Amino acid sequence: MRRDDLIGERTGPLDHILCNEDYARLVRTRKTLMWSMTSGVLAIYAAFMAVVAFSPSWLAQRIYGASSLTVGIPSATLVILLSWFLTGWYVRIANSSLDTLSARIVKESAA
């Protein structure tokens, strides 16, 4: 059921929330944020997998001289760290703005 269909038909306890403009903004913001973060993580992993598939010799290169450390190890570590960073960024945004908006929606619907 679309939100626009409910505007004139407030019959149940959840209809007030579904018709709330803040709720629509919360859903829209959360959806945009979720898809952008998902796309970012998938792009990072896909790029790493593409390098593994098409240029494994580059990953096997030693970082310097007789070192046993290859380019692949810091590259894989970077993939993990970027994923953690994106997750932390999402949590920070969710805890600051999305939770505030959710609390306002709950407070308005309880009144």
In short:
This protein is mostly helical and 111 residues long. It contains 5 helices and no strands. The protein is elongated and about 70 Å long.
List the keywords:
elongated; 111 residues; mainly alpha; 0% strand
What pattern of helices and strands is seen along the backbone?
HHHHH
Tell me the distance between the termini.
Answer: 24 Å
Query: Multimeric state of these chains?
Result: single chain
Strand content: under 5%
Shape: elongated
The gyration radius over C-alpha positions equals 23 Å
How many helices? The count is 5
Q: Mind summarizing the main beta sheet?
A: none
What's the average pLDDT? 86
User: What low-confidence regions span 5 or more consecutive residues with pLDDT below 50?
Assistant: none
Class based on secondary structure composition and strand pairing: mainly alpha
Percent range of helical residues: over 70%
Structure description:
Helix content is 77%, strand content 0%. The protein is built from five helices and no strands. The protein has helices spanning 3-6, 15-18, 21-54, 56-60, 72-110. The longest helix is centred in the last third of the chain and has 39 residues, at 72-110.
SSE blueprint:
Elements: H1 3-6, H2 15-18, H3 21-54, H4 56-60, H5 72-110
Helix pairs in contact: 3-5
